[in-house]
Amino acid sequence: MHDLRYPAKPRPGDRVAVVSPSTALPAIFPHVHELGLRRLRDELGLEPVEYPTTRQWQADPRDRARDLNAAFADPTITAVLATVGGDDQVTVIPHLDDEVLRANPKPFFGYSDNTNLLNHLYGLGIVGYHGGSVLVHLGRPVEMHPTSLDSLRAALFTSGWYDLAPADEWGDEPGDWQDPAGLDRPSTMFPGTGWSWHGPAHTVEGPVWGGNLEILSRILQAGRVGPSESYAGSVFLMETSEELPSDVEVYRMLRNLGERGLLAGFPAVLVARAKAWDFAKPNNQEQKQAYAEAQRAAVLRALSEYAPDTVAVFDLDIGHTDPQLIVPYGGTARVDAVNRSISVRY
Q: Could you tell me how far CA 194 lies from the centroid of its own chain?
């Protein structure tokens, strides 16, 4: 097991880095980005600091890495937040200065393609934070979702245990960022469905590892995951993106994790609510339900074949849907299948 350490937390009034290690969507949607920055200041009391590639479209991976190195090295910066995800952060990781990161550990917040950096920090022994996006969550239309805001505030400023809970409402149909007036229209939301539990009734406690399944698969292909036994005892977090991978693809990716020996080492798996709608695939409610059920069946099939004694919890608000709870990546999670509760230590 990795010897992981929690970085020191920021305080209200601190300067925090806002970076684009993946896609610099602030360059295309500055109105959404500016709203997110205002909420960082007004809702959380933090002073955002942008870097040269934060709004630079298709910046060279070496330049994006240079900004990350600078953000971690700057003693006046107390946390680092990603603006959004993308699909090529795998090309940025080789240019990071690991000595700088180790010497200056800071809380990093991101998800989706930022699974690359979260996994890299994990390998350096630094706890990161899966979740939070300046554009998606801070820049949410009308207001930040209270559930997202409460979790983000707790993850930023506190270090104790935080109880995750099923959301009363959820959504996966975001507004169109190309329409500035969309920021004034409420998000489409649906009644909460609660969590779904599978597996034995016992309690599991361990460090969190995993992330976006599509990105994790690419990280494995790039050879940037350690020996499988070093992750044994971890709580596996998995979520899927707006790419809407099929149930067949999800099963095959998990099967590969099983063949590698990873799945058998996870005593618990936290599965995010499946995002089942995208502008390119505007599924109706029946189609979304069918997609989510097929994905759940794929996960359960893989677990039955490779990790039959694993506790699995589905429909957590920890992925690409709204609201979003923050999970400490490398930090401790407690999954209590007896009382059906989940807590994480921020």
A: 20
Q: What is the pLDDT of residue 178?
A: 95
Pairing of strands 332-336, 203-212: antiparallel
The Cα 130–Cα 250 span in angstroms is 20
Q: Give CA–CA dist 47/12, Å, rounded.
A: 9
Indicate the residue among 131, 161, 191 that finishes a domain.
161
Report how many domains make up the chain.
2
Q: Tell me how far CA of residue 320 lies from CA of 187, 211, 238, 242, 279, in angstroms.
A: 14, 11, 11, 7, 14
Q: Is residue 140 part of a domain?
A: yes
Q: Measure the CA–CA gap between 137 and 207, rounded to whole angstroms.
A: 25
Spatial contact of 172 and 276, defined as CB atoms under 8 Å apart? yes
Q: For residue 317, give the CATH number of its domain.
A: 3.50.30.60
In tens, the pLDDT along 181-220 reads 999 999 999 999 999 999 999 999 999 999 999 999 999 9
pLDDT for the residue numbered 2: 58
175 and 136 in one domain?
no
For the stretch 164-190, what's the b/e string if a residue is b when 16 or more beta carbons lie within 10 angstroms of its beta carbon? bbbbeebbbbbbebeeeebeeeebebe
Q: Say if 181 falls within a structural domain.
A: yes
* CA atoms of 299 and 308, how far apart (whole Å): 11
280 and 260 co-located in one domain? yes
* Residues 133, 183 within the same domain: no
Q: What is the extent of the structural domain holding 107?
A: 15-161
Residues 195 and 132 both lie in one domain? no
- Among the listed residues 151, 114, 115, the one whose alpha carbon sits nearest the alpha carbon of residue 344: 151
Per-residue pLDDT, 300 = 98
**What local confidence, expressed as pLDDT, does residue 221 receive?**
97
**Whether residues 176 and 303 fall in one domain:** yes
Residue type, 228: S
Give the up-direction half-sphere exposure of residue 283: CA atoms within 13 A in the CB hemisphere: 18
Low-confidence ranges of the chain (pLDDT < 50): 1
In this prediction, residue 3 carries a pLDDT of 78
Claim to verify: residue 138 and residue 275 sit in the same structural domain = no
